[in-house]
Design a protein that fits this description.
Chain lengths: ~325, ~650
C-alpha cells in the first residue's frame, strides 16, 4: 500500500542487477499514465455525475481517491508480478531462497509511508465533512454544515414501500412526485413511518436513511435540470426492490407554478393530514385511510399513515 | 509454562483416570447423529407445545395466527434435545452422580467413519467434522447465490416472486456470514493448532466439540426458516423490520444466536490452548503465523460475539414478549439494534479476514523457500487489526443520521485499520523479494488472495470517505467490496489451505490437475463476477433488489453468467474432494511440501496422540535458506527433559 516499496527494496540485495530500479522504472510511467487518465479522461464521467453540487463533490472525492489508489495498486501488482516472473523456480532447482528475515529500512519506510497516506486521507475527508462536500449524506437532525439563506424544505416520508414528499413551505401538501427547482439549495428532512428505509436520489448525490421517529437532514443544490432516480437503498422488506420513483429538477419558474398548482389542487386533502411535523406517529390518524380510499385518490397521503402500501405485482 | 505443571496424564483429552473399559453397546444405542435428530424432533415438539401453552392467551396470538414463542421455544428445546441426543450431557450427569468418568479418548481413538458422527473429544476428529460441515454449508449458501443471480438475469422478468427472492437473499447472506466465521478456524484451527504448538490435545475438548455440534443446528434452524416463510431483512436483520417480520425471522435470531455461542466457545478453547499448551521452547516469537492469526481471530470471537448473542436475545424478546427494545414508537430505538449488530458485525468481518491472512502467510515461506519477511510485523498487523476492529463499527451508519459529530472519528479509525492490514502486504511483498517461487496449487490460491484482497482493501478505503460512501453505501459497490475481501480473501485462503493441509489431515493428496483447473476457473470467474459489480453499484443499483435499471442489464447478465461458471468452479473442487478422498485415495504420508512446520514433522495423518512424547521446540518455523538451521523440534526428547528444556532454550535461540 505504499509507493515507496519498490524504491526502498533494493537495499536487500546490492549485488544483483538493480531490480528495485527496474520496478521503479516500470511503475513510474504506468502510475503517471493511470493518474492522468483517471483525472482528465475518466474523471468527468465518474459517478454520480455533476447534476448537483453534492454529486459533483462526490465525483471529486472519487477522483481524488482513485488518483491516490491507482499508484498504490500498481506498485503492489508490478512488484508482485516482477517478482513472480524474475524469481520463479526453474526446473530442478531445489535450492532455498536467501535467508532474509526482515529489513529495518524497508519496514520503517513502509510504515511511515502508509501512515502518511492514511493520515492525509483523513485530513482530506475531515475537511470534506465540515464543508458542503459531505452535505449529501444524511446527518441527523442537527447537521454540522448548513447552507446559508433559506433552503427549500422537502420532507421525505418513507414507508413500505413508497416515498411521499411534503412541501411545508407550500402549505404542507403531500405528493408522490418529487419536483425540485434548479440552482436553489434544498433541505431534505427524511423520516419513516415504519421500518428503516434509505432515500437515495442518485443523480443528486443524496443518501439519507429514513428512520422511524428520526428527522435525518441532507442538503443539495441541483445545478442542472433533468430526471432524478430515487431508490430505497436500505432493505425494507418484501417490495424493497420495487421501491423507486423518478423526480424532476426543473427551472425555478416551472417549480413555482407546479408547487402553487399542486397546493391548490390537493388543498382539501392537505387539511385532513396531520400538521407538518419532523416525525410522525403512524397510528395517530386511523380514519384517514378510509377517506382516501373512498375519495379514490391514488398515491400520497393518509393510507400511508396506517396500513402498508402494496405495489402491484411487478 | 503450563506443560510443567501438568502431568503427562493431563495430556489426554477427556482428562481423568481411566475408569475401566467402556460398556460395549450396539451402534444404534450409542449417542450419535441419529439419536441427535430424534432428540431434536422430540425437543421441538415439547418446546412448541410449551410455547403454545404459555402464549395461548396473548392478544397478539389470539388475534393473529402468529405465535413466535412456540417457534422460539421449539428451536431452543430442539437444540437441547439435539445435544442431549448426542450425549453431550452424559459425562456431566455421570460426574454429578459421583461416579467415575469413562475414558472418552479411548473410544474416540477407534478408527472408522462412525466417530465422525459422534460427539468426539479428539480435536482431529472435530477438525474433519468442521471441514465437511463447512463445505456443505458453503455450497448450500452458494446455491442460494446462484438463485439470486438467476433472478437478476432480467431487470423486470421474475423467476421468483418477491417474497421468495427476499428469502433467498436473506438465507444466502446470513448463512455465509454466520457459518463461514468458522470456515478456517473450525477445520484448520482446531485440527492444526495443537499440532503446530506441539500439544497432544486442546485445552477444552468438550467445549471444542460443542462448538462444532452447534453449527449443524444453526444451519438446520436457519434453513427451516424457509418453511416458515423466510425472513425479509437480509443478514443484517435491522429492527424494526425484523420485529415486524413473520415467524421465519425467529429462525434467523435463534440460528445467529446459536452460531454466536458456537464461535465464543471455539474462541475460548483456542485461546486457552495456545496460552497453556505450547510445547517447551514454543515461545510467542516462534509461534507459526497461522497460530497468531487464529489466536487474534479467537479474541475477536470471544469479545465481539457476546454482543451479537445479546442483540439476538433482545430481538427474540421483542418478538415474543413485546419488550420493545428496538421499536421507536414504544420508546425503543432502531439505532440501538444497528449499534449492537455492527459492534459485532464489523469485528465479524475481520473474524472472516484474519484466518485468511494466517493461511497465506503460512504458505508463502514454504513455496518461496524463504523466511517470512518481518515475522513480528505480521503478528503486530494482526493484533493491530484485532484492536482497531472494535472501533470502526459506525462507518456502516454514515448516512443513518446517527450522531454526525462522530463520523470523523469513525472515518479515522477505518482508515487507520488499513495500516496494520498493509503490514500483511509488506510481509508478502518482502517475502517475494528474490524468492524461489514454486507455483503449486496452494501457492496459486495464496497469490490470488493478495490480488483479490488488494482490490477489496482499496475499495474499502473509498467507503471510509463519507462523500464517496454517500453514493456507494448500500449499493452493489459495497457488495462487491466485501465479496472481494471475504470470498476473494477468506474462501481463496480456505481452498489453498485444503490443498496444502489435506495431505496432513487425511493422508490423502487432492488431485493437483483438477486443483489447477479449480484454481484458474475460480480466479477468472470470481473476478469476472465481482469486478463489474463495483461499476453496477456506482451506476446506482442498490443491494437486494430484484428490479434494476434497464441500462444495467448487460452488465448484470455478464455477472450472472460468470457467477454460474464460478459455481461450476466450486463444483470442480467438490468433485475433486470426493474423488480424491473417497475413490482415488492417493496416499501422501511424508512431508510433500518440504515444510518446516511442526505439524509436518509427524506422520500423516498424525497418530492419535499427535506426538509420542511432548516435543521440545528448538527453532523458529521459517528458517528456510539458513544452511545451519537447527531442526524445528526434537520430537523424541529424553525423559525428564521438560524441565531441562526451559534452561536449554536460550542457548538454542542464540545459535539461530
Amino acid at each position: 500500500m505504499a509507493a515507496a516499496q519498490p524504491a526502498a527494496a533494493p537495499a536487500a540485495g546490492p549485488a544483483e542487477p538493480s531490480h528495485g530500479l527496474r520496478i521503479l522504472l516500470i511503475w513510474l510511467p504506468l502510475a503517471l499514465a493511470a493518474d492522468l487518465v483517471i483525472w482528465f479522461v475518466w474523471g468527468p464521467h465518474l459517478p454520480p455525475g455533476d447534476m448537483s453540487n453534492t454529486a459533483a463533490n462526490q465525483q471529486f472525492d472519487i477522483k481524488v481517491l482513485s488518483v491516490m489508489a491507482a499508484p498504490v495498486m500498481l506498485a503492489v501488482l508490478i512488484f508482485a508480478g516482477y517478482a513472480m516472473v524474475t524469481w520463479r523456480t526453474r526446473d530442478g532447482d531445489e535450492e532455498d531462497g536467501p535467508p532474509i528475515e526482515g529489513n529495518a529500512r524497508v519496514q520503517v519506510s513502509w510504515i511511515v509511508v502508509t501512515t502518511v497516506i492514511v493520515l492525509s486521507l483523513f485530513v482530506f475527508g475531515f475537511a470534506e465533512l465540515v464543508t458542503s462536500n459531505g452535505a449529501g449524506a444524511g446527518a441527523g437532525p442537527a447537521p454540522i454544515w448548513k447552507p446559508g439563506g433559506r433552503p427549500l424544505v422537502v420532507q421525505v416520508i418513507a414507508q413500505q414501500w413508497l416515498f411521499t414528499y411534503r412541501y411545508p413551505q407550500y402549505g404542507g401538501f403531500e405528493t408522490t412526485d418529487l419536483v425540485l427547482p434548479v440552482g436553489q439549495s434544498v433541505q431534505f428532512n427524511v423520516t419513516s413511518l415504519d421500518v428503516i428505509h434509505s432515500f437515495w436520489a442518485y443523480q443528486l448525490g443524496v443518501k439519507a436513511d429514513a428512520n422511524p421517529q428520526v428527522n435525518n437532514v441532507a442538503y443539495t443544490t441541483a445545478e442542472h435540470t433533468g430526471e432524478v432516480t430515487v431508490r430505497c437503498s436500505e432493505l425494507c422488506g418484501l417490495w424493497h426492490g420495487a421501491m423507486f420513483d423518478y423526480g424532476r429538477v426543473v427551472s425555478v419558474a416551472a417549480f413555482q407554478s407546479w408547487a402553487r398548482a399542486t397546493e391548490t389542487r390537493v388543498a382539501k386533502i392537505t387539511r385532513t393530514l396531520p400538521a407538518y411535523a419532523l416525525v410522525y406517529y403512524p397510528n395517530e390518524i386511523k380514519g384517514l385511510n378510509k377517506f382516501y380510499y373512498e375519495a379514490g385518490l391514488p398515491g400520497a397521503g393518509g393510507g400511508f399513515y396506517g396500513n402498508q402500501y402494496y405495489p402491484n405485482e411487478p | 509454562m503450563a506443560i510443567e505443571t501438568h502431568s503427562e496424564k493431563a495430556q489426554h483429552p477427556g482428562g481423568g483416570e481411566p475408569a475401566g473399559p467402556r460398556r460395549a453397546r450396539p451402534w444404534w444405542l450409542r449417542p450419535a447423529i441419529h439419536t441427535a435428530f430424534i432428540g431434536a424432533v422430540v425437543g421441538y415438539l415439547v418446546g412448541h407445545w410449551l410455547g403454545n401453552f404459555i402464549a395461548s392467551g396473548y392478544q397478539q396470538v389470539t388475534e393473529g395466527d402468529l405465535n413466535d414463542l412456540a417457534i422460539v421455544l421449539g428451536y431452543a428445546f430442539a437444540t437441547v434435545g439435539w445435544l442431549a441426543g448426542l450425549g453431550v450431557f452424559n459425562d456431566l450427569l455421570v460426574a454429578m452422580t459421583g461416579r467415575d468418568l469413562p475414558r472418552r479418548d479411548l473410544a474416540d481413538a477407534q478408527p472408522g467413519l462412525a466417530r465422525y458422527f459422534r460427539f468426539s473429544l479428539d480435536h482431529k476428529v472435530v477438525g474433519i467434522q468442521y471441514l465437511v460441515g463447512m463445505i456443505i454449508y458453503f455450497c448450500t449458501a452458494g446455491l442460494f447465490a446462484m438463485a439470486i443471480r438467476a433472478e437478476l438475469l432480467s431487470p423486470t422478468y421474475h423467476l421468483f416472486n418477491a417474497d421468495t427472492y427476499i428469502e433467498l437473499v436473506g438465507e444466502h447472506g446470513t448463512m455465509m456470514m454466520m457459518l463461514m466465521t468458522s470456515v478456517i478456524l473450525g477445520p484448520f484451527g482446531n485440527y492444526l493448532v495443537p499440532l503446530m504448538i506441539g500439544s497432544k490435545r486442546v485445552a477444552f475438548p468438550r467445549i471444542e466439540a460443542l462448538s462444532f455440534w452447534l453449527t449443524p443446528v444453526a444451519f438446520l434452524i436457519l434453513l427451516s426458516g424457509l418453511l416458515l416463510g423466510g425472513f425479509p431483512f437480509g443478514w443484517t436483520g435491522y429492527a424494526p423490520l425484523s420485529i415486524q417480520a413473520t415467524e421465519g425471522a425467529d429462525s434467523y435470531a435463534v440460528a445467529f444466536g446459536l452460531m454466536g455461542i458456537s464461535i465464543i466457545l471455539a474462541g475460548f478453547n483456542i485461546i486457552a490452548t495456545v496460552i497453556c499448551y505450547r510445547a517447551p521452547g514454543m515461545r510467542w516469537s516462534r509461534l507459526p503465523i497461522f497460530v497468531w492469526a487464529i489466536v487474534s481471530t479467537s479474541f475477536l470471537m470471544v469479545l465481539a460475539a457476546p454482543v451479537l448473542v445479546g442483540g439476538m436475545y433482545m430481538m427474540i424478546t421483542d418478538r415474543t414478549a413485546q419488550t420493545a427494545f428496538f421499536i421507536p414508537d414504544l420508546g425503543g430505538s432502531s439505532y440501538l439494534y444497528q449499534n449492537l449488530f455492527w459492534f459485532f458485525g464489523h469485528p465479524d468481518v475481520y473474524i472472516l479476514a484474519l484466518p485468511g491472512f494466517g493461511v497465506v502467510l503460512e504458505l508463502l515461506p514454504v513455496f518461496t523457500r524463504k523466511p517470512l519477511f518481518g515475522y513480528k510485523i505480521a503478528a503486530a498487523g494482526m493484533i493491530g487489526v484485532t484492536l482497531l476492529s472494535f472501533f470502526v463499527w459506525q462507518h456502516h451508519l454514515f448516512v443513518s443520521g446517527i450522531n454526525p459529530d462522530m463520523r470523523p472519528v469513525f472515518m479515522l479509525t477505518t482508515e487507520l485499520i488499513s495500516i496494520p492490514t498493509g503490514f500483511i502486504f509488506l510481509v508478502a511483498l518482502g517475502t517475494f523479494w528474490k524468492a524461489k517461487f514454486k507455483f503449486t496449487v496452494p501457492m496459486l490460491f495464496a497469490l490470488a488472495f493478495f490480488f483479490n484482497f488488494l482490490i477489496g482493501g482499496i475499495s474499502g478505503v473509498f467507503l471510509s470517505d463519507v462523500p464517496v460512501d454517500t453514493t456507494a453505501h448500500g449499493s452493489f459497490f459495497v457488495m462487491a467490496h466485501f465479496h472481494y475481501t471475504i470470498m476473494g480473501g477468506l474462501i481463496f485462503a480456505f481452498f489453498g489451505a485444503c490443498y496444502y493441509w489435506l495431505p496432513k489431515m487425511m493422508g490423502i493428496r487432492l488431485n493437483q490437475t483438477l486443483g489447477k483447473w479449480h484454481f484458474w476457473t475460480m480466479f477468472i470467474f470470481f473476478n469476472a463476477t465481482f469486478l463489474p459489480l463495483f461499476a453496477i453499484g456506482m451506476a446506482g443499483q442498490p443491494r437486494r433488489v430484484f428490479e434494476y435499471a434497464r441500462n444495467l442489464e448487460t452488465l448484470n447478465d455478464w455477472v450472472s453468467i460468470s457467477a454460474f461458471l464460478l459455481g461450476g468452479s466450486i463444483l470442480i473442487f467438490v468433485i475433486n474432494f470426493v474423488w480424491s478422498t473417497v475413490f482415488a485415495r492417493v496416499r501422501e504420508e511424508g512431508n510433500p511440501w518440504q515444510s518446516r512446520g511442526l505439524e509436518w514433522q509427524v506422520s500423516s495423518p498424525p497418530p492419535p496422540d499427535n506426538f509420542a512424547r511432548v516435543p521440545v521446540v528448538l527453532s523458529a518455523p521459517y528458517l528456510y535458506g539458513f544452511k545451519d538451521a537447527p531442526p524445528v523440534a526434537d520430537l523424541n526428547p529424553p525423559v525428564g527433559v521438560l524441565s531441562a528444556a526451559y534452561a536449554q532454550a536460550p542457548a538454542t535461540e542464540a545459535e539461530v
